[in-house]
Amino acid sequence: MSMTSDRKTGFGMDALQPGIERDGDSWIFRAYAPVREILRETERVSQGAASDNILVSRLRPSVFFLDGEPHRELRTAIARFFAPRTVDKEYGEFIDREVDELLEQLERDGRADLSQLGMQLAVAVAARVVGLTDSVRPGMDRRIDTLLDGQDVMKGASTNPLRKLGSNLDGFRKIGAFYLLDVLPAIRARKKQPKDDVISHLITKDYNHLEILVECLTYGVAGMVTTREFISVAAWHMLEDEGLRRTYVEAERDERRRLLHEILRLEPVASNLWRRVTEDLTIEYAGENHHIPAGSMIMLDLRTASADPEAVGQEPLRVHPGRPLPPGVAAQALAFGDGAHKCPGAFLAIHETDLFLHRLLSLPVRLVGEPRLYFNDLLKSYEIRDLILELSAGGP
Q: What letter does residue 49 receive in the DSSP assignment?
């Protein structure tokens, strides 16, 4: 299907059809309704990421890999750190201070790479929530960046992000540096003086050091990197569309966040998820029954499902603030996932992005040159680099 598109991110993955397709022993789901159905199916589909990594399989499973009641219990215990009330009450002033420092840095230098500013903010905020605040050496944002080096081409699917991280010595070296310089000091500090954060909670549940490292990678690293990319892509849209920028800057908070959700719907940072069918399953779509045998893997194309005109209406590849949506369809569609494994940090990501971008885009700042775009095969997400901002003497 060919249609006018506002998307900044691409890689030739914008075909909206077919909605369901078989690919050998696997399946690809692109249409909104069946993708959401699979994400909400807990009896016949394993929602936890498949893990065939020997090291990980011998640990207490991370929330990323769990299903059923064990997942619900751990998810409920940790999700409170990301709840809207907690974010507003506990992190609001902290985020404001971080934004102050970043904007002072921009005003002092007159020029900055937004992808670097966004990473500094995302790391600082996620570190506060998770408890990674006692690093023995500065530069945690750079160490995390090296953990998830992007690629400019797709190199095949992986169901387990930790598998690729630990697949070679260089990966172990990077993880080791993150553990020794960031995670271990945080564990030691919280054993002496617990705080209200994720690491302190895990210690009370007798998680060992390696299990805490896995949770830090799950909750911290992935959240930091994806938030950085969303900050970049949302700013990119508004820096190149003066009307959209003005609408955002002049709007009240709820309207601004609806606009951010619309951009996220169009540009989901994570493009796909994998799920395993545990019992024979039949999915009805477009008048046809699709029989999926137990053991099959399903790739859920969140990017395409979030642009399904059957769910989000006309011109699904355009940015339309205030887009009318049918009941039950979220403003961001499936960009944060759905069901039991929906992103727990969704509110926090929008909250910090809005606090930062509203102040940033109110400044006389403009985009210089053309950003570079890559695809991170590990996270199945885009990466935006060299998004250079420059302050000018005039208005925005």
A: P
